[in-house]
Design brief:
The complex is a heterodimer of chains A (260) and B (275). With 260 residues, chain A is α/β, with parallel strands linked by helices. Chain A is built from twelve helices and eight strands. Chain A has an eight-stranded mixed sheet with strand order 3-4-2-5-1-6-7-8, sandwiched between helices. In chain A, helix 1 crosses helix 11. The longest helix of chain A is centred in the middle third of the chain and has 16 residues. Classes of the chains: A alpha/beta (260), B alpha/beta (275).
């Protein structure tokens, strides 16, 4: 019996989809069978981030409406046999699916997979309700900005109201140099406001943009700090005790020159 | 007095002004007539009743309540005495003990009490006065009941109660607490607090970490004082604030505006608390 995890944030653009793709990739590298479900109907892009856009035949709405079998909508990942995707429909909107249908679907997926990871759309409307309907626990993604933290706070409140008490937090796009200067909230500051467990800190990293554009998630890529951070998050989700990365190891000018 | 019976409405209660000279039997009919006329205007809310101009016995009060429930849709929550119970208690203490108005127990000197009373009687008198004073202070806090919330109030969440509210946890920005009575936050108050929502100016807001966006008490409203410079500095603001005051603070109304001070024994002994 697997676990259903919803990746959510409230605010858009903080890295829900990137985090979902990396959690999926990382967990599958840990030999877990994982399925990612994109619930951002009408604005899907998890398939793009995973580089699977061209393989979509059936989508989430097809499954819940019974146009296809569940197995037909599962898109196998390119290099990783343990990772599957159920893409969102692009031609419909969030109201094409309801909470009951999502509960039924996630219950079915749980039987077959170790992890069911749901990519939640921004906002708190029907799409959010659908995404959290069948979830066992939540990973809340935020950036260290007051606006994102405010929305994360709202989301955690809504999750608590829906009986999900132990949300875990990912602080994304942290810039250690700015934190040091006092121009950015530290992960501790964010945790102090939100009062939830910290699952991981992901540094701001150009490699993430490159990886997204190429359609190959970073998790497992030891060369990238963000890749390591995502892999650590996956290990922690999997129950391992992993210390937090020292993001402060800023490469000096010379080491930067020689490493490239 | 032009009319033997008149009704005045306030935000949370109605004031019934009665003539002292007319026998209660006659007054009863007039009260009934008055409330029948005003029934539609008064609506169906819950209110407190204040009787002014005449002292009624308990039986008479009950008759008045009976009339109100028969003629209007109001529900009367409580009957308020014109004389503040605290004042009564103090007046009693002053007259019987012959000392000045006192607000701290240590100041009561048994010697000041009439010598003909025995020690036990004196002690009893002092205790009784104190119990009444504390009872009055207790009532002033809104109600003997309070709503207790354990956990954080997050952005978008709101707690509303006609009783005082006690929160064990933080009230985050965007979260809000609305109480007809007082608000006590054992944690950081970073959101909005509205005490005395039905018009009680004596209501107050206490928090162990007092950094609200907005505090409202009855008609008064206060917005967090934030220097433009600290806002631009972003997070440093939090650290600065931490240096400013560390202890619990309280907000209360003072001359129609909201005042803020440290919540300590000095405040508790001040007129602000025992007003």
């Amino acid at each position: 019996m697997g676990e259903v995890i919803v990746v959510t944030s409230g605010k858009g653009g903080v890295g829900k989809t990137t985090t979902t793709a990396n959690l999926g990739t990382g967990l599958s590298l840990l030999n877990k069978k994982v399925v990612l479900v994109d619930t951002d109907i009408g604005l899907r892009n998890l398939d793009v981030v995973l580089g699977l856009e061209n393989r979509i035949v059936y989508n989430l709405v097809d499954v819940v409406e019974g146009n296809c079998k569940l197995a037909q909508a599962l898109i196998k990942n390119k290099d990783n046999a343990n990772l599957y995707l159920i893409a969102a429909a692009q031609q419909r909107d969030k109201n094409a699916v309801n909470e009951e249908q999502m509960k039924k679907l996630t219950a079915e997926l749980k039987e077959q997979f170790d992890y069911v990871i749901i990519d939640c759309p921004a906002g708190i409307e029907q799409g959010f309700k659908n995404a959290i309907a069948g979830a066992d626990k939540a990973v809340v993604v935020t950036t260290p900005e007051v606006s994102a933290v405010r929305d994360a706070d709202r989301i955690i409140g809504l999750l608590e109201a829906n009986e999900m008490k132990d949300s875990q937090l990912v602080v994304n796009r942290l810039r250690p140099d700015m934190v040091k200067r006092g121009d950015m909230m530290s992960a501790d500051d964010v945790v102090e406001v939100l009062a939830v467990n910290l699952l991981g800190i992901v540094p701001d990293d150009e490699d993430v943009v490159v990886a997204t554009n190429r359609g190959i998630p970073l998790a497992g890529n030891g060369k990238s700090l963000a890749g390591q951070a995502y892999m650590n998050i996956c290990r922690r989700l999997n129950g391992e005790q992993v210390p937090f990365l020292d993001l402060d190891t800023k490469k000096g000018f010379f080491s930067k020159l020689f490493s490239k | 007095m032009a009319q033997p019976v008149s009704i005045k409405g306030t935000k949370s209660g109605i004031i019934l002004v009665l003539d002292e000279t007319i026998p209660f039997i006659q007054l009863k009919d007039l009260i009934e007539q008055k409330f029948t006329e005003a029934a539609s205007f008064l609506g169906n809310s819950s209110m407190g009743l204040l009787i002014r101009g005449r002292r009624l016995s308990e039986a008479e009060e009950n008759e008045v309540l009976d009339i109100i429930s028969r003629t209007t849709k109001l529900s009367i929550v409580c009957i308020l005495d014109e004389d503040h119970p605290l004042d009564t208690a103090f007046t009693k203490m002053v007259s019987e003990a012959g000392s000045m108005a006192i607000s701290s127990k240590e100041q009561i000197q048994p010697q000041a009490i009439k010598p003909e009373l025995s020690h036990e009687e004196r002690q009893q008198l002092v205790d009784q006065a104190y119990n009444e004073a504390y009872q009055a202070a207790f009532e002033q806090i809104g109600d003997a009941n309070a709503r207790i919330h354990v956990g954080n109030i997050r952005s978008g969440q709101e707690i509303i109660s006609q009783h005082s509210i006690i929160v064990f946890g933080d009230v985050n920005p965007g979260g809000s607490i609305v109480s007809a009575g007082c608000i006590f936050v054992f944690g950081a108050l970073k959101g909005n607090a509205f005490a005395g929502a039905t018009g009680d100016q004596n209501a107050f807001v206490v928090a162990t970490d007092f950094k609200p966006l907005q505090v409202r008490i009855a008609d008064a409203i206060a917005v967090s004082e934030e220097e433009a410079s600290s806002r631009s500095k972003g997070l440093l603001r939090r650290k600065q604030a931490r240096n400013a005051t560390t202890g619990p603070e309280v907000a209360y109304t003072y001359q129609g505006a909201i005042a803020r001070s440290e919540f300590n024994s000095k405040y508790l002994r001040s007129n602000q608390f025992f007003k």
